[in-house]
Fold:
Amino acid sequence: AATPAEPWRWHALVRCIENQWNALPTSPQFVSCDPYACYEDMRADIMSGNVWQVSNLHSVGTGHPLNVRIPWHATLKARTLQANLAFRAVHDFFGHYLADADFSWQGECKALEFHQRLFPSSTHGILAAEVLGQAAYRIVNGTFPNQCPLTLRGF
Structure:
């Protein structure tokens, strides 16, 4: 069952996203398109040291818990980034890239399973809703949904 997430879970999630963002070996470039037709293209960019890209489309709206600003990098406090965009980057890197998981349904499940190890268990239901909920909607409808803050129980 999906239920609204308690605020403290979102705060814990955002703290982890910020820490992971600051641990990325390189910062991605945010672009106004879906930059990769397939996972292998993103993987090739990361492996070759090219600038890898993350879409800034379909961002969360006002009132969503991931519509908060976090420091762009620990040493650049003046510049900030929406936590939702940082999550996309860390999910692509720590989920898809490190788990070698493509963008299929099975790949999203594999990326989530691998990536959620870096988060406290109290946030796993949010991660499942964000990753699997959006992936399922995209697979069925061909586009990403408007995001709403939910927790999937049992994760």
